[in-house]
Design brief:
Structural class: alpha+beta
Largest sheet: 7 strands, antiparallel
CATH superfamily of the largest domain: Naphthalene 1,2-dioxygenase Alpha Subunit, Chain A, domain 1
Shape: globular
Bound molecules: FE2/S2 (inorganic) cluster, fe (ii) ion
Length: 356
């Protein structure tokens, strides 16, 4: 270990992140507090929370959270932990709840998080139902996507600054949520992120995808807290139609894959230092023709194939990073600039956390 493996670098002289950051267990705890607990996380599409009582559950930094639309139309987020003895208010997504009733002993909260009733508590001294509330968290909606944060390091607008020039007036409010597909991958979450952040591997790992993309005109840009990869979609066998594919990576763990009439989001969730889960959420505009539905099925099968290819290479890389014999290699400034950008942010987070 050396102090210098955390120093800021320049792209032209950059070297990959040291193996210890992918393999030592204490790093996972530091990242949970310094990175994930301070981050904005994409939780749902707005159409999943369109009516009063509609709610979505998720975890942020191992903390169960709940987002619910109130009777006043306001979206609110709470820690999904009862103020009695830590039972869950909701265990799955749902529509139209009238109240949030704890699954353990039945304490009941309003959709605004205020405790309304606590069963059989009449003998408790100085116990005031009206003084107890669920713990709120930050919630923001951006272009029809709902984000939440425990202790955000910055406003959501700062996180997403610079994306607007590529997104124009795109808004996903009317897209419906089709499904979530969780993929467990036996690698550190940053191995999966690193792999997403470069197209360098595409000709070698994804032969079918490579035929759809024009690798030579594949562009990768970085700015602020995001990077963007895009390529005109042409080439034989392209079933998406003409248009541009935009692949955003947003700090620390979100991918927005935006294609014509399709939004697929991926969130990489750390499970252990050498394991993560990648949630793939599929969103589409409503009113699909039979042809459009067939195209989606093809799209999802193809996404599965690409994911299996990525998962295999990431698993092998994780084994190699854990073996203790890998010395970080030089990055390719032309093809790995987004990965470099991400590593700079990771190194800065470690420095801020006092990692040595
Ligand atoms: S833990 Fe919620 S009512 Fe007991
Ligand atoms: Fe890949």
């Amino acid at each position: 270990m050396s102090v210098s493996d955390l120093a800021a670098q320049t792209l032209a002289a950059s070297t990959a992140l040291a193996a210890r950051f992918y393999s030592s267990a204490d790093i996972a705890a530091i990242e949970r507090e310094q990175v994930f607990a301070r981050s904005w996380q994409l939780i749902a599409g707005a159409s999943q929370l369109s009516g009063a009582g509609d709610h979505v559950v998720a975890d942020i930094a191992d903390t169960p959270i709940l987002i619910v639309r109130g009777n006043d139309g306001v979206l609110r987020g709470f820690i999904n932990v009862c103020r009695h003895r830590a039972g869950p208010l909701a265990t799955c997504n749902g529509r139209g709840a009238k109240a949030l009733r704890c699954r353990y002993h039945g304490w009941t909260y309003g959709l605004d998080g205020a405790l309304k009733a606590a069963t059989e508590m009449q003998d408790a001294a100085d116990f005031e139902v009206g003084s107890i509330r669920l713990t709120p968290i930050a919630v923001e909606t951006w272009r029809g996507l709902v984000f939440a944060a425990l202790d955000p390091a910055m406003p959501l607008s700062e996180l997403l600054a610079g994306t607007e020039k590529h997104l124009g007036d795109r808004d996903f409010s009317h897209y419906h949520f089709e499904k979530k597909v969780p993929y467990p991958v036996a690698c550190n979450w940053k191995v999966y992120a690193d792999n997403y952040l470069e197209g360098y591997h595409v000709p070698h790992v994804h032969p079918a995808l490579n035929k759809l993309l024009d690798y030579r005109s594949y562009v990768t840009e970085t700015e602020g807290w995001h990077s963007l990869q895009y390529s005109p979609m042409e080439g034989e066998g392209n079933f998406y139609g003409n248009g541009v594919a935009l692949y955003f990576y947003i700090w620390p763990n979100l991918m927005l894959n935006i294609l014509p009439d399709r939004l697929q989001t991926n969130r990489i969730i750390p499970i252990a230092i050498d394991q993560c889960r990648v949630d793939f959420d599929f969103f589409y505009p409503p009113g699909a023709s039979p042809e459009a539905i067939a195209l989606r099925e093809q799209d999802q099968r193809f996404s599965d194939e690409v994911q299996a290819e990525d998962a295999e290479i990431c698993t092998r890389v994780q084994q190699a990073l854990t073996c203790g014999r890998y010395v970080p290699g030089r990055l390719n400034p032309k093809r790995e600039n987004a990965l470099f950008h991400f590593h700079e942010q990771v190194r800065a987070a470690y420095r801020a956390a006092g990692v040595r």
